[in-house]
């Protein structure tokens, strides 16, 4: 046995122990086994999971982008609907205002007719049945004076009083209204007088008047103000009626016809006040 051990030792020295793969030699690295199949599969699974998450985030991003675009479109729809509702509200408000003024005019007219009827039946008011005879005393220049049943009508062309389409009296209107008022005060100092406003059927564009009734209401109000404040006629003698485009005198299809329909009529009643 001692001889065998010595022989093995001698063989190891002769051949060199550095050839043993399990021993570290001069300048050589430690041997490591290759990755196992389990480790590789684990890494691949992690990569696959990360890719899945990236794809999911990308899908979510596209969905959010689509939802944002849809929300912006829906917001625009809401804004358009809101603008439409606002316009409808504005139109309704204008229609309401026109209807309100027309109702007021109708009430004023009804009150005037009621007062006229009461005058006919009242014992304290005397009816004047000689209007036609008294009309011969009027000196109104070129203004038209007409007998209409029991009343007299003095026709004043609106184009000579107002800027067309407005209730603003022109500076030259006094040259017509003042002498007319003077004649009425002289010849009919106690007769009830209605100020009736008429216009053509042309559409209303711009200006303060939104309808024919609003326009004629403004015009009759301006004449009433002039006759009472500037010409000294008693307020209780006068009342106004806005007729709008009702009761045209001529056909509205011609300029001359439309001009004839734009008018103020001073209606002299047989009743006194």
TrEMBL record:
GO cellular component: membrane
Domain OmpA-like: 149-272
Protein name stated in the entry: OmpA/MotB domain protein
Record CDD domains: OmpA_C-like (cd07185)
Gene3D superfamilies: OmpA-like domain (3.30.1330.60)
Pfam families: OmpA (PF00691)
Coiled-coil positions: 40-109
Keywords: Coiled coil, Membrane
């Amino acid at each position: 046995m001692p001889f065998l051990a010595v022989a093995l030792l001698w063989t190891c020295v002769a051949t060199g122990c550095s050839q043993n793969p399990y021993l570290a030699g001069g300048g050589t690295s430690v041997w490591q086994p290759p990755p196992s199949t389990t480790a590789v599969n684990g890494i691949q699974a992690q990569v696959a999971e990360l890719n899945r998450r990236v794809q999911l985030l990308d899908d979510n991003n596209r969905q959010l982008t689509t939802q944002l675009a849809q929300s912006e479109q829906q917001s625009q729809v809401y804004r358009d609907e809101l603008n439409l509702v606002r316009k409808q509200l504005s139109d309704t408000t204008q229609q309401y205002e026109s209807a309100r003024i027309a109702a007021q005019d109708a009430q004023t007219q009804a009150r005037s007719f009621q007062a006229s009827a009461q005058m006919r039946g009242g014992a304290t008011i005397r009816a004047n049945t000689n209007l036609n005879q008294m009309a011969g005393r009027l000196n109104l220049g070129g203004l038209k004076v007409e007998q209409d049943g029991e009343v007299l009508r003095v026709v004043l062309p609106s184009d000579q009083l107002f800027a067309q389409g407005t209730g603003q009296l022109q500076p030259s209107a006094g040259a017509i209204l003042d002498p007319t008022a003077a004649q009425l005060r002289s010849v009919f100092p106690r007769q009830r007088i209605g100020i009736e406003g008429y216009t053509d059927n042309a559409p209303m564009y711009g200006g303060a008047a939104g309808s024919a009734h609003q326009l004629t209401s403004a015009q009759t109000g301006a004449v009433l103000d002039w006759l009472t404040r500037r010409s000294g006629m008693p307020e209780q003698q006068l009342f106004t009626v806005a007729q709008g485009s009702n009761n045209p005198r001529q056909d509205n299809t011609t300029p001359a016809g439309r001009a004839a329909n734009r008018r103020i009529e001073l209606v002299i009643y047989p009743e006194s006040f």
